[in-house]
Amino acid sequence: MPAAAQHHRTRTTRLARALAVAGTGAAVLAVSLVGATSASAATGTTTKAASTTLAGYPNNLDGWIRESLAIMAQKGIPGTYNGIHRNIVRESSGNPKAINLWDSNAAAGIPSKGLLQVIDPTFNAYHVAGTSFDPYDPVANITAACNYAAARYGSIDNVFSAY
Fold first, then answer.
1. In this structure, are residues 88 and 80 in contact, taking their beta carbons and an 8 Å threshold?
2. Cβ-Cβ contacts under 8 Å for 63 (sequence gap 6 or more)
3. Are 65 and 142 in contact (CB under 8 A)?
4. How many Cβ atoms from other residues are within 10 Å of residue 65's Cβ?
5. Cβ–Cβ < 8 Å for 126, 151
6. Has residue 42 got a pLDDT over 80?
7. Please, what is the angle between helix 81-92 and helix 138-153, to 10°?
8. CA neighbor of 69 nearest in space, from 85, 90, 46, 54
9. How far apart are CA 50 and CA 59, in angstroms?
10. 136-157: per-residue pLDDT in tens?
11. pTM value?
12. Cβ distance 72 to 143 under 8 Å?
């Protein structure tokens, strides 16, 4: 065989070996991923129970807003999903543990807290019965803030800036 052909065969062999090694690595990775998926699925029932609120809503921004809207409907507090969501995104980016430590309220010792950045006196004055007394509780924060916005602006839907 000429040298050129022999060289070609060597390159082909190297390529085949590289693919075999890569394929083996992919198989090992796939097995690892399948194992991880199976382990995750085994604990999925425990995680699912923890991923809902006590009222059965998803324990996330969507669920907190929907639970608040249900409470608001029972209490006659106006507001819509879109109005609440828009204000939450502006005020806290959806972080229920958000706290403002730099504005005039914070300087006065009463920082704004939670999803809708409510100060403690406002939260306490507009707290809605049946919700937590913790201003960081997402549903309590949303519901109290919407109650305040309804009294001051007619609805959270009418709020387009800090309030």
1. no
2. 52, 53, 57
3. yes
4. 24
5. yes
6. no
7. 110
8. 85
9. 8
10. 999 999 999 999 999 999 999 9
11. 0.70
12. yes
